[in-house]
């Protein structure tokens, strides 16, 4: 759902083939000592810790200053609350005239509370995680006044790298086991209660971001989320949580443009990558995904909202042992459009729904039929091969009665059942498109031409959003 910006602000502050992954371990930096006694992020609940010495280190060759969190009082024993030390280290680096490195040293585990790291900063910051950072252990340990919707937030940052060879451990198990979670409810029925769970890492209204080389695991909810951001480079990440962990999307982007997600391994309990409304110019390449729910655009158009998504490419990737492969999902009643999407050179290994478009997405059996829809057009499936779980057809195009899918193109698609000897037929409903080559199985159910409704459609006002 797209919330008005003011509500987003309130929410923010309210509390196949295998492709080689380059796993270069980034160099650790020397421990240094420096101190600022006041954080401008928020006033500390207790007196700020005192440092032994207010010294710092400047690399004479690069003229870059390193700010070690231990110099600001961080203990790193995995038990002591190191939040205030991180806040002071951030503020010192953020106020520095020249680019600096905020160092989380190797060999230590730092427990920090829900925190917002605020910009803009005077210069770029490298947040170097070589050790481990973790939140409080579960909802019972979460401070009452802290938001249970997010853990670490980076707000209004321009020019930052979150990187290193360390670990961001979300300690999500106790959140996944809340009785309001579907897989833990008795007799399959969820219990009525507040079910907020924190996103591990969130970037909000930020630009020129790099996230590289880290292990991010066991998030209570999404592992990484980007809202209203631009120029985002994500590379060499290892994101993992159990296959049954609910809503643990690996990377989610919303209202975000010019994104590159490369050379990463993602295994989790929901989508490896999910693309929400307002996203365009997104390039996803060389991802090993699964077990998971696949790589998804959507869901879009919930509660009659508008969603505009365009210029999305997913290529050179592997999806294995997943509920879905490449998916586009929209709710009935929505507005807007999904267009200019390419899925190319993807290997499917035992995937239940390798290729799916679902314009009837619904989480219950009681969703009413509605006429309006998010239109879907100009979708290319090229060189997609592998095996599928026979419980579902290998290709499913369930398109709107009023606004059918248009200009679907399939080329070099070969999907075979993992066990059965008979190839299942694809499913089509109001899907218009062509086979450039004979696919396996053949998609003879595609309709020819362009639906009349598409000829009259103006993308529901999305052109302004894409080019603005």
UniProtKB/TrEMBL annotation:
It is found in: Secreted, Cell wall. Keywords: Cell wall, Cell wall biogenesis/degradation, Glycosidase, Hydrolase, Secreted, Signal. The keyword Hydrolase applies. Residues 1-18 form the signal peptide. GO terms for molecular function: polygalacturonase activity. InterPro entries: Glyco_hydro_28, PbH1, Pectin_lyas_fold, Pectin_lyase_fold/virulence. GO terms for biological process: carbohydrate metabolic process; cell wall organization. It holds the Pfam family Glyco_hydro_28. Its main location: secreted. It comes from the Eukaryota. The active site is at residue 293. PROSITE patterns: POLYGALACTURONASE, PROKAR_LIPOPROTEIN. Belongs to the glycosyl hydrolase 28 family. This is Polygalacturonase. The lineage of its organism: Eukaryota, Viridiplantae, Streptophyta, Embryophyta, Tracheophyta.
């Amino acid at each position: 759902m797209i919330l008005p910006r003011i509500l987003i602000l309130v929410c923010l502050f309210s509390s196949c083939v295998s492709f080689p992954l380059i796993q270069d371990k980034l160099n650790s930096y020397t421990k240094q000592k420096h101190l600022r006694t006041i954080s401008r992020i928020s006033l500390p609940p207790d007196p700020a810790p005192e440092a032994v010495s207010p010294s710092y280190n400047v690399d004479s060759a690069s003229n870059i200053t390193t700010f070690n969190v231990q110099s600001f009082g961080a203990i790193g024993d995995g038990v002591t609350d190191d939040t205030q030390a991180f806040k002071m280290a951030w503020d010192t680096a953020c106020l520095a005239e020249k680019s600096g490195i905020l160092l989380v040293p190797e060999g230590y585990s730092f427990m920090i509370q829900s925190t917002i790291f605020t910009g803009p900063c005077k210069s770029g910051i490298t947040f170097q995680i070589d050790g481990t950072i973790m939140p409080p252990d579960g909802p019972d340990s979460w401070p009452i006044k802290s938001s249970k919707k997010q853990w670490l937030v980076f707000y209004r940052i321009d020019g930052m790298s979150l990187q290193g060879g360390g670990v961001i451990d979300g300690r999500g198990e106790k959140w996944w086991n809340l009785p309001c979670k579907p897989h833990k409810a008795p007799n399959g029925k969820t219990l009525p209660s507040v079910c907020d769970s924190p996103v591990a890492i969130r970037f909000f209204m930020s630009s020129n971001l790099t996230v590289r080389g880290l292990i991010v695991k066991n998030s209570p909810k999404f592992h990484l989320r980007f809202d209203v951001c631009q120029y985002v480079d994500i590379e060499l990440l290892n994101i993992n949580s159990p296959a049954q962990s609910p809503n643990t999307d690996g990377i989610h982007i919303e209202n975000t443009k010019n994104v590159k997600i490369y050379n990463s391994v993602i295994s989790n309990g929901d989508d490896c990558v999910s693309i929400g409304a307002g996203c365009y110019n997104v390039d996803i390449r060389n991802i090993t995904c699964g077990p998971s729910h696949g790589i998804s655009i959507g869901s879009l158009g919930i509660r009659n909202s508008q969603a505009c998504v365009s210029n999305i490419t997913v290529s050179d990737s592997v999806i294995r042992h997943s509920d879905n492969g490449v998916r586009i999902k929209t709710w009935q009643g929505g507005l807007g459009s999904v267009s200019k999407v390419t899925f190319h050179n993807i290997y499917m290994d035992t995937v239940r729904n390798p290729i799916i478009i679902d314009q009837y997405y619904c989480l219950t059996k009681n969703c009413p039929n509605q006429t309006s829809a998010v239109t879907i057009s100009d979708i290319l499936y090229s060189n997609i091969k592998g095996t599928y779980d026979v419980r579902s057809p290998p290709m499913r195009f369930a398109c709107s009665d009023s606004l059918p899918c248009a200009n679907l193109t399939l080329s070099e698609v070969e999907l075979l059942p993992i066990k059965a000897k008979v190839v299942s037929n694809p499913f089509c409903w109001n899907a218009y498109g062509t086979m450039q080559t004979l696919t396996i199985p053949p998609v003879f159910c595609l309709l020819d031409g362009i639906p009349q409704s598409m000829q009259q459609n103006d993308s529901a006002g999305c052109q302004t959003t894409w080019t603005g």
